[in-house]
Amino acid sequence: MADLLVDMDYAIMTINSQIVYKPTSQRDDPEPDNDREVYVGNLPQHYTIEKFVNFAKKCGSIYSVRLLKGSGGLNKGFGYIMYRSLAAVDIAIDTYNGTFLPESDTNKPLIVQKSLRNTIMMIYGLSRGNNNKYYIRTEINYFVINHPSLLLKFECEDDSKLFISFKSLKAAQIFKKKLKDTFNMYGAKMYYFNDTENWVSNQLRINKN
């Protein structure tokens, strides 16, 4: 087991199916915005939380580290690092994405990307034939006018779906609560798009078409 010097006011704990290294009190140390979190995929399944925390610290000050538990004491091959600064996020991605860990048991390079964490909304069931795409875009534009600080941008779209990103999970929840019934009326649905590994390829494919 890798040595880990646990920071003051931090602890390793198990929460649902995750092993988490985080502050013991979020009241005194609230969680940063979601844009400071990175997803790390293709981790060795025997990788421990201690090793993952030490790995994360090499790129900057961390707020929390989460490792998803698998079976038999192994992990699921991916986890999340919440940094305290955007600079650390960029350093982690530039340093580790596409590289290999010495302990790798997958023969696959690390995938290090910004975490989606319920901040990307996919709206699907759109159709130019019945003009619902036009009405959906109009409703979104009204939402942006009334809540300019919540929505970040339209990410990409094609004839049947579009993706938009939000500044936080709470912002996405407000959007979904206010527009869910209207979208249903137009025959459109929405859900949180959390597949980080396929996000970049999905963006490139849609934007190319």
Automatic annotation (TrEMBL):
UniProt entry keywords in alphabetical sequence: RNA-binding
Record domain RRM: where: 36-117
Entry-linked InterPro entries: Nucleotide-bd_a/b_plait_sf, RBD_domain_sf, RRM_dom
Keyword Transport attached: no
GO molecular function list: RNA binding
Matches recorded under Pfam families: RRM_1 (PF00076)
Protein name as catalogued: RRM domain-containing protein
Annotated organism of origin: Macrosiphum euphorbiae
